[in-house]
Design a protein that fits this description.
Length: 181
């Protein structure tokens, strides 16, 4: 059971946790990001005192946010959840029983956070893969177009050589012919 003293300090802990996230930025992020992080951290801290009920959405939101941060490793992202233990110890001055109970809850939170983080990371990699696949298809279409319509490629084929090996004189003739038209 958590004491009333600890419950009174939860908002202070949530605020300190939010500031911990924001301290990694060289300049203060836009208001929308600050509000987003504040909403996630305050709801997560609140859920610690409700046996982790209603923690799924804010924790998933926070893990998705952290999964997109290329400067933060998986361990660093999950470490931000463990940092709650230090904040509660420093701010709420927990006794041993309170710490053990909160420690148990935070450990459960970390396990959930890890699963959510990995799912979010997979989503990010799938999106990046789809983007790379799209770019490759676009490059292939450009290559096919060039192979079909490019005058340099046509001239090289007429001469029976690779387009990259086309002599400089032939390239200059083709360029002069294009300028005249």
């Amino acid at each position: 059971m958590v004491s009333k003293k600890v419950l009174q300090k939860k908002n202070e802990v949530a605020n300190a946790w939010k500031e911990y996230f924001l301290s990694r930025y060289p300049i203060r992020p836009p208001k929308e990001i600050v509000e987003y992080i504040e909403e996630c951290t305050s709801q997560i801290v609140e859920s610690l005192f409700k046996d982790l009920k209603d923690v799924e959405k804010p924790l998933d939101d926070l893990m998705r946010y952290l999964a997109t941060d290329t400067k933060l490793s998986a361990g660093g992202s999950i470490g931000t959840i463990f940092y709650l233990k230090k904040l509660f110890l420093d701010i709420a001055k927990l006794n041993m029983n309170e710490f053990l109970e909160l420690n148990r809850r935070i450990d459960l939170l970390v396990c959930k956070a890890f699963d959510m983080y990995m799912n979010a990371r997979e989503d990010v990699y799938r999106a990046r893969f789809r983007q790379m696949e799209f770019e490759l298809k676009a490059q292939m279409r450009a290559y096919e177009f060039c192979m079909k319509y490019c005058p340099y490629v046509k001239k090289a084929k007429e001469m029976g050589m690779d387009p990259w090996d086309l002599p400089k004189e032939e390239l200059e003739k083709l360029e002069k012919g294009a300028d005249e038209h």
